[in-house]
Write a structure and sequence with these properties.
It is built from 31 helices and ten strands.
Amino acid sequence: MLIVAWLLAVVVAFFALAYLNAAGWVWTAAIIAALAAMWSAQWLTPLALLIIAIVLLLPAIILNIPVLRRKVVSDMVLTAFRKVLPPMSQTERDAIEAGTVWWDGELFSGNPRWSRLLAMPRPRLTADEQRFLDHECEELCAMVSDWETTHVYRDLPPAVWQYVKDKGFLGMIIPKEFGGLGFSGFAHSQVITKLSTHSGTVAVTVMVPNSLGPGELLLHYGTDEQKKHFLPRLAKGIEVPCFALTNPNAGSDAAAIPDFGIVCMGEYQGKSTLGLKLTWEKRYITLGPVATILGLAFRAYDPDHLLGNKEDLGTLIPTHHPGVNIGHRHMPLNAVFQNGPNSGKDVFIPIEWVIGGKAQVGNGWRMLMESLAAGRGISLPSSSTGMAKLAVRATGGYARVRSQFKTPIGKFEGVEEALARMGGNLYMMDATRMLTALAVDLGEKPAVPSAIAKFHLTDRARQVINDAMDVVGGKGICMGPSNFLGAAYMQLPVSITVEGANILTRSLIIFGQGAMRCHPYVLKEIEATRETDRERASIAFDRALFGHISFVLSNMARSFVMGLCGSHCAVAPDKVARETRRYYQQLTRFSAVLAFLSDVSMGSLGGALKRKEKLSARLGDILSMLYLCSATLKRYEVEGRQISDAPLMHWAIWDAMFPSDQLGHAVAKLLIEPSATRDRLTAGMFVSSNEENSVGAIELALAATLAADPIEAKIKDAVKAGRLSIKARDDRIADAQSAGIITAEESSALRRAQRLVDKVVRVDDFPPDLGASEMRLSAAVVAHKAAA
Ligand SMILES: Cc1cc2nc3c(=O)[nH]c(=O)nc-3n(C[C@H](O)[C@H](O)[C@H](O)COP(=O)(O)OP(=O)(O)OC[C@H]3O[C@@H](n4cnc5c(N)ncnc54)[C@H](O)[C@@H]3O)c2cc1C
């Protein structure tokens, strides 16, 4: 019996010490205490006890004395580690080391410090930024019609292009000192979100110059001369930039571009000049066909050693420069933003056209990797959230005003299920968008959070839009000016593909980069293997190795114990809403499990983990869900714990942790009726009050339908009581008014609601040839004019 109690005490002590990540001497003291208990109980002969003591205490003593530990353990492991570590190219190193570790590091730690998340400020707009959203953005949205853009101009109308340039939309990230708007990451995100609630074409056109490209690269790496010349011109749209990286043979594997430049002497403006002779073929380049400045990525070679053999990315070439072939367009599904190929063969440019000048030749890939996170954290997360806002608000309204089987379709359980997914997803998406933009404003380069936001927000936007398409049925399928959804549906694959195609981002990048960057010890271990000074390498590796071992032990014990007690033993932060406390506890447990599973996977598979993409993707999903859930909880706090928004928050967290449909009804109800929650959920959206606008019509129809509900009820009661006969709707309204059941105002309110609902339900139709003869006619006119 005593032995059982002793064994139990040893097991409990083991887990307690591991759970608390106890220091080495505490472990040693615990071993001595266990041996002492054995000694006093006299279970073993003194000799047997002595042997056990030597076996346990000798390693304990060695492990407690760093110099000894290094000699006996760490140095040997370091030698073995150096042999098995797969070689890492500079390109891979740049990709892994790019950016900073932020809240993602806490999520990977196994024990996130929630107080750090909660202490982060709420993102806010300055008065200028708010004014811009309320005026310039509203005006731009009012000027653009997606239908006109896609079907009449096949481009933004000229007046819209001019407005975008004049008002500085293309220079939001350029500081005021260079004539730009100097907006924060959050303001930039709000603008893209708003534009995306109305027109994908205008959103993409504005998004690209403010994302990774010449503007961003010049800001960080340009020479003073380049900044002074280009930034003010980019800010005012005098120059339109594009960034050309993708080659027909190198899409996802962008580092493998075959485009090249040879460092050589050539003639420029009549003088012999040091420069590059470039040959390239690019495709899919957004704004390429109308760009005046081509930001070109290529590999530089220096066979004559004029600079040293270096590779490069990022050269600015005026598109009118001889030899630049530019102007043709691709047709990215239904979106008509400018996008096309460009190429050049043996085009000579002076070396000063390299971003950052001669000094930066060779640093291109690193520059690109370092600058990637800010744009990736803002552009696509914001545009996807914008599209989801449009879908949620308009579909919610539509589901209330469209009736079948004498019931608004939004009240059917089946439709509720889709609406619940839409609302819950949007709440979480917007929360993640805001948290990631905040990271940019806090000066971070959030490499891993931006990859998470890119993948999950575009993926969820697709889910939201697909659900919306199912809810609106044929109304979403028949294209025309009154279809508010079809364009977003067709544009979504663009978001999925660009800035790191989604399958690749999920399978390779999120966990691959997360595990290396966010893990507190792995990168330190790898760095130690590269250290050439023996003593320094030994000390650094020893610290990292033993830190890593206690980290694994601790996370194993914490995962096990928290699993046993249903996370109740995890500490939740004090100052959070009561209804969310359990979520913090659960997330702490999942963080420990993720950290432990990651170490098990890396330890057992080593470099092969890179090829086990399904495993990497699933581990990445856990990291992503932790990030999305923490963003959601943060949002709930900063928005003042709005109790009416709670179903959205609960739905989003439950869906991420343990998918459930319990909350569906409450969430769906929030979407189909006007409320502060619905406004908060779709905040920042462009909502027209014009009934000729497809979303404006739904808003007006929704308000009119709700106002008509009690009047309809009076008529129904009268029919039931036999005071009114069952007739067609129009006749019934007239009869009800003549019978004194409703007043003249009530009658006109009913007719208005009916007219607006009919307008919403209607879809567009066209001549039998869908306008092809008109198009052929105008093409013939153009050809005739050209011939003349
Ligand atoms: C509308 C549009 C606008 C664009 N704008 C620009 C621009 O302005 N500038 C620019 O330089 N480029 C631009 N691009 C290019 C874009 O970045 C690429 O399309 C993207 O990198 C994917 O390359 P790809 O289309 O060749 O697909 P591929 O690389 O052929 O990939 C095909 C599929 O394979 C998957 N895949 C590839 N490798 C892996 C892997 N290791 N593990 C798992 N899955 C993998 C991908 O996820 C994808 O699903 C644009 C593209 C489009 C369509």
